[in-house]
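ARCHIVE CARD
Drawer: 12
Card no.: 0347
Subject: one protein chain, sequence and derived structure
Cross-reference: see card 0346
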Amino acid sequence: MSDDAEIGQAKSDASALDGKEIRSISTNELYNNVHVTKDNGFLSKLRKVEAKLDAKLGIESQAIDRKLPEDRRPVPWHQQLSMALLWASSTLNTSCFATGFLGHELGLSLKQSIVITIFASLLGGAVTGFSATFGAVTGLRQISVSRYSFGWWPNKIIAALNTIVQIGWAAVSCITGGLALTAVADGHLSLVVGIIIIAIVALLISFIGLRAILVYERYAWVIYFVIFMIFFGETGRYADNATPSSLSGADLSGSVLSLLAIVYGSSASWCTMASDYYVHYPVDVSRVKVFFMTTFGITIPTCIGMLAGCVVSSALNNRPDWASSYEDDGIGFLIQDMLYPRGFAKLILTLLVLSGINVNVISLYSAAISCQQFARPLSRIPRFIWTFLCFVVILAVALGGREQLNTYLQNFLSLLGYWCTSYFVITFLEHYVFRKGNFKNYDLDAWNDPERLPIGLGALAAFLLGVVAWVMGMVETWYVGPLGKLIGSSGGDVANEFAFVVTLIVYLPARFLELKVTGR
């Protein structure tokens, strides 16, 4: 072959190779910051459907991708009220009302229950308020934010636990909303059907995405605020503010600690998804504003709902008919009996049914996002598919636990607080000790790159030893830890306190050692 022929053949081969590369490049795209192939496969078709729905309905495709500062729009002051109103709509519900009964169940007086509820709600709300401050400045979802302390692999534990938390919250809301719906129908509608209806409506709203959630939650709280004011007005005169606690000494201390853990867990459990709802705000939004609006946006409405439960549960001492209704038929029929006239009570119950939807909406949304962040292959699956799968699990959990609401609340809410305490300590120390409280020390472009993120061994060691700590201090109906057993005949829950100390002591030296050895 002549030299000219060889050169011509080489150019032809190179041209063919370039064509293949171009075709290869053209069939790839970034989806949630992960390379995916554009073909006729099942997932590709689902992503195309999601893109079309996003264009028409704004369902928020590529939800976990970092929201860059230049892609965000200014948010008017009245829309910034969503920083607080989002949480007001999510906490003014029958779940918080039912939680308010637990002080009475634990043998505490009305005064004791009120003081503990206010203090624990504020403490848990502040934990969530701190987490919320990361959303606007980083443009990252909460699970992505925690990669900067837990690293790529250990953070998968956090993603899994957060999914479980959100599914559990949604299940509680389905049960309480279903009970209200059953009472509205005078028992002619089964609790199973009520739970399914609540879950389906929440699924539809959550399916659309953050835009629909913020609009819905911004206004939904008004209805429930009025309802709880009616509760106070119609039941306050029957409140038992005279009967002291039946407990004393170590038994009293045990019940106080257990209620503190339950209420704190209720408010602190939002901390692992808080920043999800702030990524659309401008990067320069005041972090102080975010902190206080989130903290009090959780604390005040949580207290309103739970204190209503405290008042009504104390009134059971003065109204045996209410006590009988509550014990025999559940919280929905109790609400129907304590409000007058009956037609008005049914209207209130009908509206309260919708309160179960408020929690479900944000829980479904954040659970789906956590699933996408568990592993890169899972991030290729569109959010609306994960939303539907989480919906199925929520239904299963709610239907399975529907007959034991109080036991479910007492165990589940305590467990939420335990691990959220360790999560808060680790992220707080990472930000203020190791990154000097300065976001310039975060490589925000590395949020999805395992090679540039911390390894996370320090956080893993602190978190796992924190788990040992809260197992030793926990008090649940199915298990009482050796430390918890030491306080009173029924135990006192010191899991959060013990986990806080152990996580703090372990993380500081472990993270310093990790930095020294790995340099990241």
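Annotation on reverse: The first strand starts at residue 28 and ends at 31. Confidence is low (pLDDT under 50) at residues 5-26.
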